[in-house]
Design brief:
single chain, alpha/beta, 3 domains, two-stranded antiparallel sheet, 18 helices, DNA binding, DNA recombination
Amino acid sequence: MTIRKEILDELLKDYDGTDPQTILGEGGLLKQLTKAVIERALEAELETHLGYKKHEAAGKGTGNSRNGKSQKTLQAECGAVELAVPRDRNAEFEPVVVRKGQTRLAGLDEKILALYARGMTTRDIQAQLLEMYGVDVSSTLISNVTDAVMDEVRQWQNRPLEAVYPIAYFDCLHVKVRDNGRVVNKAVYLALGVDIEGQKELLGIWLSAHEGAKFWLGILTELSNRGLKDILIACVDGLTGLPEAIESVYPGCLVQLCMVHMVRNSCKYVSWKDRKALCADLRSIYSAATEDEAELHLELLREKWDKPYPSVGRMWRENWSRVIPIFRFGEDIRKVIYTTNAIESLNMTIRKVSRNHRIMPNDESVMKMVYLAIQNQMKKWTMPIRAWRPALNRLMIEFEGRLKV
């Protein structure tokens, strides 16, 4: 439905642009229009329900008629709107535009969820809505709106998945949650897939008392049960037992350790004054052109650093089979799999929105917050990852028969 320009010109003929409150403020044109349009729509609905217009003779003897109006306060984006809702004598009229029991327009729910997704607390949302829209909502209403998201979360969490994701990332972060009167750290598990079109897709969110390979095994089994039958390359942060868990569910999967995590873990053993030099030597390993060159640089690193820091070289040697998969591929695929940055950016989003919620009241609140924050982030995933087509062609050759485009 398009409003004719002549009608808008008539409504705005007295507006000179000096006081926007005459349009947006309390008693302004926008609120008046909202009230007038909704009340006119309600009258039209009642007319359709009764089958005759007001004061028409056709209404006599029909057994039902108009029966005055009841007052209703509706919270809308323009503020609280006082409505006069028409009634019928038989109490059979069921309004559609504003249903019985409805206290707010749908647009207000979206505003509440958008603010919650950006990390605002209930008190912050109340203040923001009051300041920007003149809408005074209760904390109970905000909780009810966000609680309704849980049904959506459950459906999303159990949705079927694609049969093959060429690349998948697995990572975990921790949040503080109240649990039986105590504040504990809980692990939020995330699995991110890259589909055949090169589009990123979050496969699921899970919550546990702690991070561990056994819980990851349960997640991987769930992904398999939801239809994910093959992963070509899995990128992980080096949690002990996670590569083995992946390979037990997806035997043909190539597990690649994140080089950023490997360097970060190496620096834990090294004094501050030596870190810059050590990182430069580590870079020569994972940026090598071939596996043989990388191994040569590893031996040079051990000769140089084993005496002061023996744990560094030993850690790289013990994880060598999970370091070298990147050397099987060209630069296009290496850039995608040598680090878990794709999923780390999601972690950063979650940490940002959770900053105001230093302690979450319960597990359900964590799931709501994480889901809404990530859904907000996923709106930006409109393009495939960079240089995906040549990377896909290489993957189809490398993993012959496992990808069908």
